[in-house]
Structure formats: C-alpha cells, structure tokens
Amino acid sequence: MQAQEELSDHKFHGEWDDEGVFVYQAYKDSIADYAIEHQKLGGPEFKPRRMTWIKPSFAWVLYRAGYGHKHNQERILKIKLSHESIAHILSQCRCGHGGGGSVGRVQWDPERDLMSPENDKGSKSIKSCNPRKMLQRRAIQIGMKDDLSEYFVEKAISIEDVTELSHAVGDAHMSPNYKDLMDALKEAGRLPNERDYLPKCENSVLKSLAMLHGEEADEVSRIGRGKAV
User: Pairing mode, if any, of strands 93-95 and 104-119?
Assistant: First the structure.
C-alpha cells in the first residue's frame, strides 16, 4: 500500500477508467489493419522487440504523427492496458534525462494542448500545424524494448482506430474557427476525457520517475531552463 507522499508537478495525464488506462501509438496501414482485425499488435511487418513509445496524451501523438498524415504514421491507434500492466511497465523504466533504462524509459516533454493549435500564419498545409505547446506542463512518454515491449504487446486489452478523429482535430486546428469546431467535437463526446492519474506503483518507482517530489522531479523541472543537461 502506498504511503502518503507529496505529488510533484509532473502528472501522468490521460484517459482511464476502472478497467485500465488508454495510450496511443501511430503506425503504417498494414500494421494498423492487423492490429484492429486481431485486437493485437503483430503481423509480418511488426517487430515486437524494437524500441516503441506509448503516449497517454492524445494531443501529443497528434503532434508526433502530424494528425495521422506523416509517412508510416498514417493510422492512430488507441490501446488499453490494465492498471497492473501499466504499473509493471513503469516499474521497469528510468527517467530519460539520465540516459534512460535498459529496457524502459520515461521522458517528460512539454505537453500539447488538444483544444488549440499553433501554426504558420497564412499556411494552408497541415504540416505547418501542431497542437499548441504548453510550456508550463509536461506530458509523459513511455519507451520500451526487448522483453518489455513484448510484454506491452501481450497485455493490450483492446485496440481502437482513432484515425478519423485525428483527422477531424487536424481539420479543426487548420480552421480560423477552430474554437467552435473543437468545442463541437467535445460536446459530441468524441474527445478523450483526460485527467490526472496516479499509477499503482510503489512510491520508490513513482519518485524515480519524477511523479513524487524528490531529486528526479527537481531534475525534470530544470530541463529546458538551462539548468540541466
């Protein structure tokens, strides 16, 4: 049982329910088709032991994959893991600013705002548009390889294709009326209900990953401010 300790400013923010936690990945069509049909990542082109990253933030995967328009990232998948599985994965990770763990790595990058864009004024290309960078908040990225990435593949509860929604958000962000369009998507219940989440890990793990106050949390806070390598 976790003892009460002070949470840091670095929050695992994502969509979750009583059964588990949702994370996102972007893949090429052939891998995504296999995953949706079999409800499991696999197929002849999928390499289960290679380094792979999962993102609880929908806005962050949209940024990374260009709303599903980047080469070999045309399909956005929403993958559900149990609370126990995400806790096990995190227990094998180390914070990336120190070189990362051997099989698992956590990075804290500036969060992206799903509700508002940043783009080059006057540009009509989706390539110039991104969910707005939020400098005061960080989003967790979780990297895995070898046995840990195989564990992730085996533990997926469900896999959903959210590419159509990704494109809809991208179209909204490209519009001068993006606020009204994003509000409409939210009111229709199409956007994920992301909120703070505390993984069911030992406090020592949470502290080592900067989710509880301590040396790691302080180090992450200094990244990007000229005080940390």
Answer: parallel
